[in-house]
Amino acid sequence: MKNKKNIVLKKKGVRKIDTPLGYLYIISTESGIIKVTSRENIENNSIGKQHLDSAERWLISYFNGSEIKRPELDYLDMTEFQKKTLDQLMINVKFGETISYSELAILIKNRSAVRAIGTTMAKNPWPIIIPCHRVIKKDNSIGKYSGIGGIKGKRILLEHEGIKVFN
Question: Are 54 and 36 in contact (CB under 8 A)?
């Protein structure tokens, strides 16, 4: 049985948004967005409504070719390493740009963390908002993608940003 101290129940809000990748479900708490997924969820706009509104505006802007201020994110389940890595990606790699896993390791000042960076990208709960699709292999090939739509989704997002991708 789990220790009751480790169980944190949070009420969640959900917004369904139609995008070029299909329907996305944005999930929020009162503190911020906790997940972006293509898995169907029942809409509930009463919890974290301001964050859901912000995420919807951001996604509309993104798919129209630009980025506005990102919605507030709830980092509750992130380690410090994951938070630092995702923050550096979000801050330093803009719309239409890419970075390799090894370049991101240099950026976070941890050259030996390439595999851990790959794991962090695979576990990113905010695909598109935190642009893990912009992380590619150092030979400029697309690499893997566990985000929405898999490798096809990654290709669509990169091409949307004007990036030529290779297999």
Answer: no
The structural domains of the chain, ordered by start, are 10-63 (3.30.160), 80-160 (1.10.10.10)
Catalytic residue among 132, 135, 148, 165: 132
154 is catalytic: no
* Digit-coded pLDDT (tens) for 29-52: 999 999 999 999 999 988 999 999
**Are the CB atoms for 132 and 104 separated by under 8 Å?**
no
Q: Take residue 123 and report the two structure tokens written for it.
A: 């576990």
Report which of 13, 75, 81, 3 is spatially closest to residue 49, judged by C-alpha positions. Answer: 13
Q: What phi and psi, each to the nearest 5 degrees, are found at residue 23? A: -75, 135
Using DSSP's 3-state secondary structure scheme, residue 100 falls into strand
The sheet with strand 22-28 has its strands ordered as: 13-19, 22-28, 33-37
